[in-house]
Amino acid sequence: MNVKSTLIEALGIEITHLSQEKVTATMPVDERTRQPFGLLHGGASVALAETVASIGAYECLDKETETCAGLEINANHVRAKRDGIVTATATPIHKGKTTMIWEIKITDEEEKLICISRCTMAILQRK
User: What pTM, to 2 d.p., does this model score?
Assistant: First the structure.
Protein backbone atom coordinates (compact mmCIF):
# COMPACT_ATOMS: atom_id res chain seq x y z
CA MET A 1 0.00 0.00 0.00
CA ASN A 2 1.41 3.34 -1.03
CA VAL A 3 0.73 5.91 1.69
CA LYS A 4 3.08 8.57 0.29
CA SER A 5 1.43 12.01 0.15
CA THR A 6 -1.72 10.82 1.96
CA LEU A 7 -3.37 11.65 5.27
CA ILE A 8 -1.88 8.42 6.63
CA GLU A 9 1.62 9.76 6.01
CA ALA A 10 0.77 13.30 7.20
CA LEU A 11 -0.51 12.02 10.56
CA GLY A 12 2.36 9.56 11.02
CA ILE A 13 0.08 6.50 11.06
CA GLU A 14 1.90 3.16 10.84
CA ILE A 15 0.16 -0.16 10.24
CA THR A 16 1.56 -2.75 12.65
CA HIS A 17 -0.72 -5.74 11.99
CA LEU A 18 -2.94 -6.60 9.05
CA SER A 19 -5.33 -9.53 8.63
CA GLN A 20 -8.97 -10.05 7.68
CA GLU A 21 -9.87 -10.28 11.38
CA LYS A 22 -7.75 -7.52 12.92
CA VAL A 23 -5.87 -4.39 11.89
CA THR A 24 -3.67 -2.41 14.26
CA ALA A 25 -1.90 0.87 13.70
CA THR A 26 -0.08 3.47 15.75
CA MET A 27 -0.20 7.24 15.55
CA PRO A 28 1.93 9.79 17.41
CA VAL A 29 0.33 12.45 19.57
CA ASP A 30 2.39 15.44 18.48
CA GLU A 31 2.10 18.76 16.63
CA ARG A 32 0.47 16.96 13.66
CA THR A 33 -2.34 15.40 15.68
CA ARG A 34 -3.04 17.85 18.55
CA GLN A 35 -5.75 20.49 18.68
CA PRO A 36 -4.87 24.07 19.80
CA PHE A 37 -5.37 23.21 23.50
CA GLY A 38 -2.60 20.61 23.38
CA LEU A 39 -4.77 17.49 23.37
CA LEU A 40 -5.14 14.74 20.78
CA HIS A 41 -7.57 16.10 18.20
CA GLY A 42 -10.80 14.12 17.94
CA GLY A 43 -10.58 14.38 14.16
CA ALA A 44 -7.17 12.74 14.20
CA SER A 45 -8.61 9.88 16.25
CA VAL A 46 -11.45 9.50 13.76
CA ALA A 47 -9.00 9.56 10.84
CA LEU A 48 -6.99 6.80 12.54
CA ALA A 49 -10.16 4.79 13.19
CA GLU A 50 -11.40 5.05 9.61
CA THR A 51 -7.95 4.17 8.32
CA VAL A 52 -7.77 0.84 10.14
CA ALA A 53 -11.41 0.00 9.35
CA SER A 54 -10.93 0.80 5.66
CA ILE A 55 -7.74 -1.22 5.39
CA GLY A 56 -9.38 -4.14 7.19
CA ALA A 57 -12.43 -4.10 4.95
CA TYR A 58 -10.27 -3.83 1.83
CA GLU A 59 -8.26 -6.86 2.97
CA CYS A 60 -11.48 -8.92 2.92
CA LEU A 61 -12.48 -8.03 -0.64
CA ASP A 62 -11.97 -9.58 -4.04
CA LYS A 63 -9.70 -6.80 -5.25
CA GLU A 64 -10.39 -7.59 -8.94
CA THR A 65 -14.13 -6.89 -8.64
CA GLU A 66 -14.70 -4.96 -5.40
CA THR A 67 -13.61 -1.86 -3.55
CA CYS A 68 -14.88 -0.13 -0.41
CA ALA A 69 -15.56 3.32 1.00
CA GLY A 70 -16.51 4.67 4.39
CA LEU A 71 -20.27 5.04 4.75
CA GLU A 72 -20.62 6.12 8.40
CA ILE A 73 -18.35 6.56 11.39
CA ASN A 74 -18.97 7.51 15.00
CA ALA A 75 -16.57 8.00 17.87
CA ASN A 76 -16.74 8.46 21.61
CA HIS A 77 -13.70 10.26 22.99
CA VAL A 78 -13.23 8.73 26.43
CA ARG A 79 -9.92 10.11 27.70
CA ALA A 80 -7.63 12.99 26.77
CA LYS A 81 -4.08 12.39 25.56
CA ARG A 82 -1.33 15.04 25.37
CA ASP A 83 1.68 13.18 23.98
CA GLY A 84 3.09 9.75 23.22
CA ILE A 85 1.57 7.14 20.95
CA VAL A 86 -1.94 5.80 20.50
CA THR A 87 -2.77 2.41 19.03
CA ALA A 88 -5.94 1.61 17.09
CA THR A 89 -7.23 -1.96 16.90
CA ALA A 90 -10.03 -2.68 14.43
CA THR A 91 -12.05 -5.89 14.42
CA PRO A 92 -15.04 -6.76 12.22
CA ILE A 93 -18.49 -6.97 13.78
CA HIS A 94 -20.27 -7.75 10.49
CA LYS A 95 -18.90 -8.77 7.10
CA GLY A 96 -21.74 -8.73 4.59
CA LYS A 97 -21.96 -8.56 0.81
CA THR A 98 -22.77 -4.84 0.66
CA THR A 99 -21.58 -3.49 4.02
CA MET A 100 -19.07 -4.26 6.73
CA ILE A 101 -19.06 -2.89 10.26
CA TRP A 102 -15.78 -2.56 12.16
CA GLU A 103 -15.25 -1.70 15.82
CA ILE A 104 -12.14 0.33 16.60
CA LYS A 105 -10.58 0.82 20.02
CA ILE A 106 -7.88 3.44 20.38
CA THR A 107 -5.68 3.01 23.45
CA ASP A 108 -2.62 4.62 24.98
CA GLU A 109 0.68 2.99 25.94
CA GLU A 110 -0.90 1.66 29.17
CA GLU A 111 -3.83 0.20 27.19
CA LYS A 112 -6.23 2.78 28.64
CA LEU A 113 -9.13 3.49 26.32
CA ILE A 114 -8.82 6.88 24.59
CA CYS A 115 -11.56 6.51 21.96
CA ILE A 116 -14.02 3.88 20.79
CA SER A 117 -15.43 4.03 17.31
CA ARG A 118 -17.61 2.09 14.89
CA CYS A 119 -17.24 2.41 11.14
CA THR A 120 -19.61 1.13 8.46
CA MET A 121 -17.96 0.42 5.13
CA ALA A 122 -19.86 0.24 1.83
CA ILE A 123 -18.73 -2.61 -0.42
CA LEU A 124 -18.80 -1.41 -4.03
CA GLN A 125 -18.49 -3.27 -7.32
CA ARG A 126 -15.67 -2.05 -9.56
CA LYS A 127 -16.78 -0.83 -12.97
Answer: 0.96
